[in-house]
């Protein structure tokens, strides 16, 4: 598994570099995704190191997940016109950070899994991705295939739908299908690899032909 995780880190690093290369000519939402890739690479590197050295990396995800949620909320705030007009994404991101803090204080301490928050995070991100599709589909001027936001929203929707499914069933899997955990772990890491590879490729390949929402 460790070698598989190192492949994951390498893909994350490549994707982050792809975003950095196009950062100067990218518009704000794409820059936010690049920041997400960089932060994710740093957090996952620290998490893998802590898992190997200390046998517990839960505190890292308690810190990283609300930051991740805030960054993704800011992305949707900049890419969805109705969100941008009223700063809805920013408010959602702040609410998520508060929810994470409350989860740590009252439900799941730093040394335990924060899957309650992950279920919340997944639900809200899935909602925002679906809402972004509504706005794109209602705009008849959009060429969806050439629209960078379409592909980023599609990737985020796919990833967080799978994440939601797993964490919503986490307790059931732990109690009744513990022997599948090893295989599920490989599947989840594979999904992560495909997700971040897709985001990096989207940033790099669409940087010269960005199709933005009508403002």
Brief rundown of the structure:
This protein has helices at 2-21, 28-54, 58-79, 81-86, 88-106, 115-138, 148-168, 170-176, 181-205.
Structural notes for this entry:
- Helix content is about 80%, strand content about 0%.
- Residues about 210-215 have low confidence and may be disordered.
- By secondary structure, the chain is mainly α.
- The chain is built from 9 helices and no strands.
- Proportion in β-strands: under 5%
The geometry reads as globular
Q: Percent range for helical residues?
A: over 70%
Report, as a whole number of angstroms, the end-to-end distance.
46 Å
Roughly how many Å is the radius of gyration?
17 Å
Structural class call reads: mainly alpha
List the helices and strands and how they pair.
Layout: H1 2-21, H2 28-54, H3 58-79, H4 81-86, H5 88-106, H6 115-138, H7 148-168, H8 170-176, H9 181-205
Main attributes?
mainly alpha; 215 residues; globular
């Amino acid at each position: 598994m460790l070698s598989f995780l190192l492949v994951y880190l390498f893909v994350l690093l490549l994707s982050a570099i792809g975003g950095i290369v196009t950062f100067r000519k990218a518009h704000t939402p794409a820059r936010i995704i690049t920041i997400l890739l960089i932060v994710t690479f740093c957090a996952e590197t620290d998490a893998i190191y802590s898992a190997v050295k200390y046998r517990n990396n839960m505190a890292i995800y308690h810190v990283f997940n609300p930051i991740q949620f805030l960054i993704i909320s800011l992305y949707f705030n900049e890419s969805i016109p109705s969100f941008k007009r009223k700063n809805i994404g920013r408010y959602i991101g702040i609410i998520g950070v508060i929810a994470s803090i409350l989860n740590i204080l009252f439900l799941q301490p730093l040394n335990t899994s924060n899957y309650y928050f992950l279920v919340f995070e997944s639900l809200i991100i899935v909602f925002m991705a679906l809402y972004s599709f509504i706005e794109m589909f209602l705009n008849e001027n959009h060429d969806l295939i050439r629209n960078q936001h379409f592909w980023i929203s599609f990737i985020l929707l796919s990833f967080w739908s799978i994440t939601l499914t797993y964490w919503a069933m986490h307790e059931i899997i732990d109690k009744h299908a513990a022997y599948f955990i090893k295989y599920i772990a490989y599947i989840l890491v594979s999904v992560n690899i495909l997700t971040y590879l897709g985001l990096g490729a989207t940033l790099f390949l669409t940087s010269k032909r960005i199709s933005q929402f009508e403002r």
